[in-house]
Amino acid sequence: MNAKILLGKRIKELRKQKGLTQEQLAELIDLETTSLSGIESGRHYPSLPTIEKIARVLGIEIKMLFDFHHLQDVEVLKQNIIDNIDKLAEDKIIFIYEYIMKHTV
């Protein structure tokens, strides 16, 4: 998934966490609802001033808008785990194992 789509998904996720509709957020950041829709769907990148407004209205630091690793495709996430498991300390591997065993049915 490309960064434009991931950024849009992240903005949508954070907007919903704040309990805002697209219309409400668009009004608060002085943007047309269709423009915000284009950003959230990954069709358009927001400008820096728009990014700043979104972060301010959502009450977050700008960098949190770009924390979207969890929104990646599940297969990519699985591969990242596999690629990095050997780099972990033994106690971390045990923790992960216990977590997985506790949360699988």
Question: What's the total number of strands?
Answer: 0
In the CATH hierarchy, the third-tier topology of the largest domain is known as: 434 Repressor (Amino-terminal Domain)
Number of helices: 6
Count the domains: 2
Q: What's the Cα radius of gyration?
A: 17 Å
First-residue to last-residue Cα separation: 30 Å
CATH 4th-level superfamily of the largest domain? lambda repressor-like DNA-binding domains
Structural class, by secondary structure, is mainly alpha
The helicity comes to 55-70%
Rounded mean pLDDT is: 93
Beta-strand percent range: under 5%
Shape: elongated
CATH hierarchy, class of the largest domain? Mainly Alpha
Task: Let me know the largest β-sheet.
Answer: none
Order of helices and strands: HHHHHH
The CATH architecture of the largest domain can be given as Orthogonal Bundle
Secondary structure elements and pairings:
Elements (H helix, E strand, L loop, with lengths): L2 H15 L4 H7 L4 H8 L7 H11 L15 H11 L5 H14 L2
Helix pairs in contact: 2-3
Give structural notes.
This protein is an all-alpha fold. The protein has two domains: 3-69, lambda repressor-like DNA-binding domains (434 Repressor (Amino-terminal Domain), Orthogonal Bundle), CATH 1.10.260; 73-103. Helices cover 63% and strands 0% of the residues. The chain contains six helices and no strands. The protein has helices at residues 3-17, 22-28, 33-40, 48-58, 74-84, 90-103. Helix 2 packs across helix 3 (33-40). The longest helix is centred in the first third of the chain and has 15 residues, at 3-17. The protein is elongated and about 50 Å long. The model has no long low-confidence stretch (mean pLDDT 93).
